[in-house]
Every structure is written in C-alpha cells, then in structure tokens.
Amino acid sequence: MTSNPRLARRRVLQCLGLATGAHALGACDAPLEYRPNQEVNPIERAREVGALNTLLAAEYTLVDAYAQATSRLVAARDDSTRPQTERELAVLALGLARAFQQHHAAHAALLARTMTDLGAVPVSEDLLSYEPPAGFKPSVGNVLKLSANEERRSIIAFTRVLASIQTPNTRFVLASIQGIHAQHFAVLTALVESRLEMAPALDAARVVPRPFVASTEELGGGEGLGAEPDLAVGDAG
Questions:
Q1: 39 Cβ partners below 8 Å, 6+ apart?
Q2: N or C: which end of the chain has fewer CB within 10 A?
Q3: Bridge partners of residue 212, in order along the sequence
Q4: What class does CATH assign to 50-213?
Q5: How many CA atoms, within 13 angstroms, populate the side-chain half-sphere of residue 131?
C-alpha cells in the first residue's frame, strides 16, 4: 500500500481544524494512510453508502427547515404588532437562517457528489421535507431554539457515522461539514441565551464565514476556514 502525502496532510488538517471539539477527536484516531476507494471492500462500501444517504437526507431536511424558518422570520420582522425588540431579533436571526441554509445546501451537494463518486445513487431532495415537532409555536425565540436543536442532532449524527467510515476522502468531507454544524449550534445557542449583543447590523456571513472547516474544493465542495485571515491582535484597544 503506497502513501499519499496530499491525503496525509489533509487528514492532519482535519484533526487540527476540529480539535476544539472533543466530539471530533475520533476523526484523528486512524493512521494517516492512503486507501483508494477501490480498496474498500463491498460490504464496507455498502455500509458507508447507507450512512451517507442518511446524512444527505438530513441535510436536505435542514435546507427545508431553514426555508421554513426564513418565512417565519420574515413574517415576524414585518409584523408591526410585535414588540420592537422581537422584530430586531428577527432581522438578526433572518440573516443567520439564510446563511446557514446556504451552508447546508453546499453540504448536501458535496455529500451527493461523494456518493456518486462511490458509485451510489443519492437520495432525491424532492422526497424530503421538514416537519416541526408537535407543540411548536413560531415565535422568533422558538425558531432559534428549534434550529439549535436540529444542528445539535446533526453534529451527533455526523460523529457517529465518522466513527465507522474507512474511506479517507469520505471521512475528510464529513469532518469538514461537521465542524461547521458545531459553529452553527454555538452561534444559535449564544443567541438563545442572549450571550450575543442584539445587533441587527451584524453581518451573518461573517459569523460562520465558510461552508466547510477545511477546503473541499478538490473534491467538488467549497472553501474552508483556511481561506480566512487571522484576526488582527495588534490593536490598541
């Protein structure tokens, strides 16, 4: 079996990019070795494809969930009978919902391509939709809480699947997606707990600026956090 420096480096970046979350440590346990897709045995490949299809279905469902959230937040923003503070929170939440929906759409596209590369047929987005839980009341706060709940479930699902995936490229893709879901969850829970200042002018695109932790462009995905410059630390204040 021959080594592949590019994939080895990619796995190292995966570990570094997710080391801030204890749930991601499992992604770094396997040795840094190259295993081409054709070397994965058929049973392992079938199990991998099934897991990927489950995650892809979840991504499509989240895309629809954020579409519903966007509609509810627009209605709240434009409802003059609501308190001004809630309408301002709706503006902030709306920017996040739109940005996060775009991330999940990018994740779904890359998962579908990954499945195609494995010779499998991805589940169709047309077959999936999001159903809010029973008792859900569409206030701005509840929309944020519901989004945080779904992002948390997604992180857990990706963590469990990562533990069983053997193909390096697939593990890299999942880890790079999972880290962004963790960022979504952190931002949403911060808003729910009022840890972020209510600022309607906040640029949602800068809160979680990239759709992937590490670049997945070579695999058909998009830019990662490596494209972001370091924050300046020489300011006077």
A1: 1
A2: C
A3: 224
A4: mainly alpha
A5: 4
